[in-house]
């Protein structure tokens, strides 16, 4: 598989989580009114999606190390397509929650195996560049998805949001059908062997600590995703179309950060970029606390800084974590994504509580997580210098 085809297919696969959540964010207030549901209940369509999505990640990775990436992708995407249609046919918040769970179980196959395929096909430097470009392209999904969702709701109905997600799955399914199996060496997959792989990873202190540390960045990001409809549409009184534009600006920040990462890593030491990125998160979070409540433009500008810095650091962070393992790559990628999305689900659950000031909560999460990761990396670099070869 050449670089362009690999990049396009991996972009399709990696975009499953943002396409599955961000496209229907503009519909949440409508569904809340339609089904007379409170914010915490309607947000379960987001939170439980990521909970079951995270659990499924732990299953796909180790099984794919034994049976290959391609068959697992075909099964998972097939489940996703069927569940997307059922979501569009849902007639209550409880049925939508149920079908979203099945949608999550399918989408997890694409998300968990994207980084494993990248490691299968590319060496360290090529992979870091690929992940940076992948971050740029994938950032288009959350940037365009809410705007597209707002237009779909305006001209068609909220049901069509899910039908179009099913079409996205169909396109990805066709791409996987044409893909050759990227895994060259397969390993056995009994229950004991799968548990053994996870046990080996849990004993890998560098991998484990780095995974837990980097996952903290997901908490403010997913808190923003779940809280943005309430902040922009309920608090600032924006319509779904304008909400899509403001949310898209946040995704543009992620794309710009990833693009700059790909350009700068050939010119600047990655270790310096990592530290600058997490300092930027602290600055952005502080700015949200001081000016975020002044209006949608002020909040969007401060959040832009936080998300830009996440985009700048994430390709290097992912590559750095994967560099800590030499075997069980699919399992390692799955556990990494699992921890990421569990941290994200925790952020969503936190922001869904009846806070009087959700903007302040996002400010504290952004600044606090950025500072914690920055300090944690400095401590790790002191004790485990060899762990940072990939960014030196």
Task: Note down, in words, how this protein is organized.
This protein is mainly alpha-helical and about 400 residues long. The protein has a single domain, classed as Growth Hormone, Chain: A, CATH 1.20.1250.20. The protein contains 18 helices and no strands. Helix 13 packs parallel to helix 17. The longest helix is centred in the first third of the chain and has 29 residues. About 55% of the residues are buried. The model has no long low-confidence stretch (mean pLDDT about 80).
Summarize the structure.
The chain has 18 helices and no strands. It is mostly helical.
Write the layout of secondary structure elements.
Layout (H helix, E strand, L loop, with lengths): L2 H12 L1 H6 L6 H7 L4 H4 L1 H24 L1 H20 L4 H29 L2 H15 L1 H16 L3 H19 L13 H13 L1 H11 L2 H18 L4 H25 L5 H22 L4 H27 L6 H23 L6 H26 L9
- The CATH architecture designation is Up-down Bundle
Spans of at least 5 consecutive residues whose pLDDT stays below 50 are: none
Strand content bin: under 5%
Fold-level CATH name = Growth Hormone, Chain: A
Largest beta-sheet details: none
CATH class: Mainly Alpha
CATH superfamily: MFS general substrate transporter like domains
Distance between the termini: 29 Å
Give the helices and strands as they follow along the chain.
HHHHHHHHHHHHHHHHHH
Helix content: over 70%
Rg over CA atoms: 20 Å
